[in-house]
Amino acid sequence: MNQKYSFKEFLTKETYIGLDPDSEEDITGTICRIEIPMIQRDYAQGRIKEYNKEKQAIINDTGSRFIRAIFNALKTNSEMELEFIYGSVDVRPIPKKKTEEYVYVPLDGQQRLTSLYLLYWYMGLRELDCDNDEREVLLNILSKFTYLTRSSSRIFCECICDGEKVKGINFTDSSPSKQIENCPWFYKEYKKDPTVKSMLAMLDHIHSLYNAEKAEGTVYLPRLENLKFYVFPLNKYK
Description:
- Helix 2 (about 60-75) packs parallel to helix 7 (about 195-215), helix 3 packs antiparallel against helix 4 (about 135-140) and helix 3 crosses helix 7 (about 195-215).
- A hairpin with a 5-residue loop joins strand 4 and strand 5 (about 55-60).
- The mean pLDDT is about 90.
- The chain is an alpha/beta fold.
- The chain has helices spanning about 5-10, 60-75, 110-125, 135-140, 150-160, 175-180, 195-215; strands at about 5, 15-20, 25-35, 50, 55-60, 80-95, 100-110, 145, 225-235.
């Protein structure tokens, strides 16, 4: 529990799972997926507060302050501690493989995790070329994050982590939201999903800060590993 993780590390490194009910020894394993459960609210850090004169979305103060603090840390390449992420680890059997997988279900920290997910997605597509193997590896890791609040949220997350479906996105022609909305797989119904709508607004906000503040020649994607949080599994508390 004293170990800190970046978003990427939490989905690739071994972490504490809980106590073995028989031996009461610690169990460790690799989280194969993060699922935002149906009981959770929609993504809110990207919720739109108002529109400016150019009809561009302005996100709420909470989300804006959080992303601003992250960009300040990225500019100085310094570590930023994001406190605790609380949740439970579901141990699910895989019959065909005769083994088990560990799925993390956040109970508190959903908003921070989602914003980190979007930051990795944006930086990955912005700073890694389409033919770069690292880009595909990153998208595979990000595909382990999903929303179960609505089927449209889940499918949207799947689509933006599909390398072929986002191949044409370049962040130079227009905002991320416009480019995503112009993709053949994007349906108008997605705009009715509050989580998807907030994700698109947050991506535009990240895009705006990136263009305005990133110094020429700097690369932000590796610096995202400096954004760390603690994980507190609640399994032993039933």
